[in-house]
Each structure stands twice: as C-alpha cells, then as structure tokens.
Amino acid sequence: MQFDVLIEVRPRQGISDPEGATIERSLPTLGYDGVTSVRVGKAIRCTIEAEDEALAHAELEDLCARFLTNPVIEDAAISMQPQVER
Amino acid sequence: MQFDVLIEVRPRQGISDPEGATIERSLPTLGYDGVTSVRVGKAIRCTIEAEDEALAHAELEDLCARFLTNPVIEDAAISMQPQVER
Question: Using a CB-CB distance cutoff of 8 angstroms, which residues of chain A are in contact with residue B50?
C-alpha cells in the first residue's frame, strides 16, 4: 500500500528562528501589516510503500528522529493519506 | 479576526530538487526501503490579522508571489484556519 506523506519540520518552541524573524521584521516596511509569529521550517513530501498506515507511520517517525530532523532544535509533524489507485 | 496560516512552498513539478534527490538516494543504504518521490520545500507558519478569510487569503497570495516564493521554480499552497479565541 502506498501513502502520500507530508513531514513538516519546524523549529521547537523557544528556539530562535532567524529566517522567520527577518521575514517578520521586514513585512511592515513592505506594506504587509498584521502578519506575526513567522516561523520557517521544512516541508518534506514523499511516497512510502508499507503494509498498513501504522507501519508506515512508525518507519517515518524513526526516519525523522534519525536523519530528517535535529531533535534538539526541531519538531516533526507527520501527516499522510493512502494513495488513490490509478 | 486572526488566522493561523501554513504556507507550503515546494519546487514546481519538473524542477530539479537536489536536496530531495540526495535524501532519496541515501535512504536505501540507511535501511529505509520503499520511500520514493522525496521533495523538500519550506513550511512557513504565521498568524495574520484580517477582516475575513477571503481578505487574509488575498494578502497571503500577494505576499507569496512577491517575496516568499520564486514563482519561476516554486509553487505555494496556503492553508489557514481561524484562531480559537482565548
């Protein structure tokens, strides 16, 4: 069974995010008021082949913890849905 | 009215994504089979203050096209939900 996956990697709460801070500081000058709390992370999309959703989720959790994130400063949120058969 | 926003910036279809390709190539060696089509983009989270959802969406579209993405090589997907009152 194949699943379409989105892994959102984001800076943990309290960890500084210079890229987000820079965007947030610049926006009022550029004419965009009212945008706050800007945080920049990564969006990783992939496809995974696994027997069921629980197994796919476990493999992705492990993958995130070992390679895709730095658990000291980053969190990962995994969302997935079964791929529609073609 | 305040909205929690997620902007997913991803490489357009057909545009090469060296970071995603490198991850995909490494995974089988690291013991993860069955993960394919890896694409790495950005996940930008923010809060926007606007009168209604349509106005917020229009401002974000404009912001994405002008500053947050390079429309030649990147697409943006905006999702948002009203913030729960505290």
Answer: 34
Q: Which of B9, B35, B45 sits opposite A48 (nearest CB)?
A: B35
What is the predicted ipTM? Answer: 0.89
Backbone torsion region of residue B53, taken as left when φ is above 0, otherwise alpha when ψ lies between -120 and 50, otherwise beta: alpha
Continuous H helices in B1-86: 18-26, 53-63
CB contact (8 A) between residue B45 and residue A37: yes
- Complete domains list, chain B, with CATH: 2-82 (3.30.1280.10)
Tens-of-pLDDT digits for all 86 residues of chain A? Answer: 999 999 999 999 999 999 999 999 999 999 998 999 999 999 999 999 999 999 999 999 999 999 999 999 999 999 999 998 76
